[in-house]
Amino acid sequence: MRKLKIKMKKDLLLISVSVLFRVGLRYVSNDYVKLITCCLKYKSLGKEHTGEHVLMGCLQRIKGSLKVRKVEFSEGTGSVIVEVDSLNFNELAEAQVMANRVISEGRVVKEHFFNSLEDAQKTFPSLRAHEERIKGRVRVVEIDGFDYSACSGEHVGNTRECGIILVTHVSKSGGEYRIDFEVGEKALETAVRLSTLCLSVSSILGSPIRNLEKTVINMRMENEDMKRRLSAATEQLVNNILSKTVLGEVEFHKGLLKGVDTRTVMKTVGELISRSRSIYVIGMEWFGVCNILVGSSDGRVKAAELVRGVCKAFNGKGGGDEKIAVGSLPCGGIGEALEEAEKRVRNALTK
Q1: CA-CA distance, 179 to 195, in Å (whole number)?
Q2: Rounded Cα–Cα distance for residues 20 and 36 (Å)
Q3: Angle at 159 between CA 136 and CA 152, to 5 degrees
Q4: What would the mean pLDDT of 327-343 be, rounded to a whole number?
Q5: Closest among 272, 263, 213, 270 to 240, alpha carbons compared
């Protein structure tokens, strides 16, 4: 009887589509067209929905328990929001291997109906269900002997129809994880593309794929160490290398620094102008990129106004606030820009 009902549904859908093409869309109501389009799309996402059930069933076996909070599907792709205590890449890899094995086994996808969620849970103790959303009669989708989930969506009749499944992205928000995945041909194409990318990166770094993760971790650690060293060297340069002139009650510091970290310069200058009545005009050059920074604790010299004025005069641009401002300009004019900034500072202090 169930097979007969399914066949009748399919036949009705095919007849409806046939009518659309035979009589022409202009003679059919918009609502009818939307209904048929929706049915076709709904049916076409069966492999995505079934793949999600298989993948979540695998994760449930690995983690012991989890709750699926939300699912979204489009052709060849899907996303699932899952609540679980923790999740790492090794567990995801294990789940994918298990899921693809289940898919390749060609397990039959069955459905069961119960009068209540409690009845369904008695029959299938491992049942996954978004309990807050379920009332009354319950439909349970079974991946033959492997997974049981309360679900109202369409699915394929056999797991082999999913092809393969591949997790493409994972992110965490609070106690929930979002898992993006692909199935079928799309998953296969992505797998080949990712494999090619790994081979390319391996070649660029001169590291075998088996050592790629370790190589990247080491590079990141080295990069963090270099950033700390650069920051320390920059702070030392700002404190000791800049020229100093006393203009009345104000200390004026100026200089051109090469190969320094801009953020460290800003931080250091911010600390220095908070300790004394001072003004800093600093040029910074890094691989063909030049900046000018102004820091001022004297109300007569407003940093943002000075930077914007100087940068405009030298075909650059900049901004900030009254205390700290930064601008960029062509490197060919950085020396003259520093002189112009000093000139404007002196004029402002003598008014």
Answers
A1: 20
A2: 9
A3: 15
A4: 95
A5: 272
Burial class (CB in 10 A: 0-12, 13-18, 19+), 132: exposed
The amino acid occupying position 199 is L
| Count of Cβ atoms closer than 10 Å to residue 181 Cβ | 26
Q: CB neighbours (10 Å) of residue 109?
A: 21
Tokens of 77: 């792709």
Which of 317, 315, 321, 328 lies closest to 296 in space, CA to CA?
321
Q: How confident is the model at residue 30 (pLDDT cuts 50, 70, 90)?
A: low
Per-position b or e across 194-223, b if 16+ CB within 10 A of its CB: eeeeeeeebeeeebeeeeeeebeeeeeeee
Three-state SS annotation for 61-105: HHHCCCEEEEEEEECCEEEEEEECCCCCHHHHHHHHHHHHHHHHC
Q: Is 286 exposed, middle or buried (0-12, 13-18, 19+ CB in 10 A)?
A: middle
> Which tokens sit at 189?
């194409």
Q: In this structure, what token pair is assigned to residue 29?
A: 């109501």
Average pLDDT value for the chain = 88
- Residue 218 pLDDT more than 60? yes
Q: Which CATH class is domain 242-350?
A: alpha beta
Whether 60 and 128 have beta carbons less than 8 Å apart is answered as yes
Say whether domain 45-205 belongs to CATH 3.30.420.270.
no
The C-alpha atoms of residue 169 and residue 334 are separated, in whole angstroms, by: 45
Distance CA 162, CA 281 (A): 64
Domain boundaries, the chain: 2-43, 45-205, 242-350
Strand arrangement, sheet containing 147-150: 109-114, 138-143, 147-150
Cα→Cα distances 55→111, 162, 350, Å: 18, 11, 74
